Amino acid sequence: MSTPTVPVYFEESWAILSSIGLTNVLFGLMVIGITSLSPVSLVPIVVSVAGSLANGLCYYAFYADYPKTGTVIAAAIADVSWLIQEAGLSFYSYLILTRVLQNRSRVIFMCLFWTIMAVLLTIRIFILASRAKDILDGSTNRQNTIDHLHVGYFSSIALVECISAFFLLRKFASARRTSIEASSTSGLFSYLMRSTEIRLATLAVIGFSRAITYSFQTTAQSATTTASQLDRFVYTLECMFPVMLFIDILASKLVVTNHIHESSSQSRSRNLNNASSRKQNNGLSGISMYPISHVETRVDAQGGMSSSQERIFQSTVSQAGTHNSNEESQEFQQKDGVITKTVEFDFHDSAA
């Protein structure tokens, strides 16, 4: 009896999905180089590594012909890696919420989040144990149980993302209302709300779709029916989801940078206006702000002087609006320490 031919690795979709995960890791390193290393930027990288490992081991466990011990170990590691990949996507919202939520809201969210995560872990352990028994027995008797466990597993993933989105949208909506009243940062919070809505829609669709399609799975990790092929397509979208997170990280950095630039520009503008106002209140320094073409300064000297001692000065106001005291026309005569002549200044403003 001839042994079945082992399919070539890169002829299977699992090889492509594993390669997508490796590519996402490279994208993540580029994003970190552009932005900075942070827990949020590590989330898509970690889930991509886990997905790449799980998909590669899936071929080893369910397609290749290896001893049962190695196959069971590979299947177990693959299940753990899938847990990290699929449940880990929700930690992107979790890391944001733990920073913005406070007091009661924070406690409620964390209790709900970790409760669902505990449920996910429990379900995945049952899936792992059931698969291991099937591999050791060389049968698929527990496949129906595994399918039903996956329904609860994927539904829980969609539920935890819906809960995270609820708290995020409520927080951002409140901050947006405040920012509109203060006429600042409204664009930033509008963007954060839109990105959260997109993440919610995508992950919720993936979670509920896989909960439906996986219930029709008849063989372990094989796309042999229309429903299982649709499930493989939805899982491919899930493998591509880290790319959306990378875009969100870069777009958030761009929006925040633009907001900081606008705020600093407005601050500099206010400082210049304040300096200009102080300058206007300082004597004649602000006279150039007004439509006066020139100022006629008439000096009347009283004290027996001839009319030729009366001078008319027409001086154009300078840009700075300052006058040098040494250039002012002031005639006086001092005798025995007493000023014997006074000078009267009359300022006449003539229109341009």
Features:
single chain, 352 residues, mainly alpha, Rhopdopsin 7-helix transmembrane proteins, 2 domains, two-stranded antiparallel ribbon, 8 helices, elongated
Question: What does this protein look like?
Answer:
- With 352 residues, the protein is mainly α.
- The chain has two domains: 9-266, Up-down Bundle (Rhopdopsin 7-helix transmembrane proteins); 290-317 and 329-351, no CATH class.
- Helices cover 66% and strands 9% of the residues.
- It has eight helices and five strands, in the order H-H-H-H-H-H-H-H-E-E-E-E-E.
- It has helices spanning 13-34, 39-62, 68-88, 91-100, 103-137, 143-181, 186-213, 226-280, and strands spanning 292-302, 311-315, 334-335, 338-339, 342-351.
- A three-stranded antiparallel sheet has the order 2-1-5, with no helix packed on it.
- Helix 1 (13-34) packs parallel to helix 8 (226-280), helix 2 (39-62) packs antiparallel against helix 8 (226-280) and helix 6 runs antiparallel to helix 7.
- The longest helix is centred in the C-terminal third of the chain and has 55 residues, at 226-280.
- It is elongated and about 85 Å long.
- Residues 281-335 and 337-341 have low confidence and may be disordered.
TL;DR?
Keywords: Membrane, Transmembrane, Transmembrane helix. The chain contains eight helices and five strands, in the order H-H-H-H-H-H-H-H-E-E-E-E-E.
Reading the helices and strands in chain order gives: HHHHHHHHEEEEE
User: Over all CA atoms, what is the radius of gyration?
Assistant: 39 Å
End-to-end distance: 112 Å
Largest sheet: 3 strands, antiparallel
Q: Beta fraction of the residues?
A: 5-15%
User: How many individual β-strands?
Assistant: 5
Assembly state (oligomeric): single chain
Keywords: Membrane, Transmembrane, Transmembrane helix
Organism: Hyaloscypha bicolor E
Protein name: Integral membrane protein
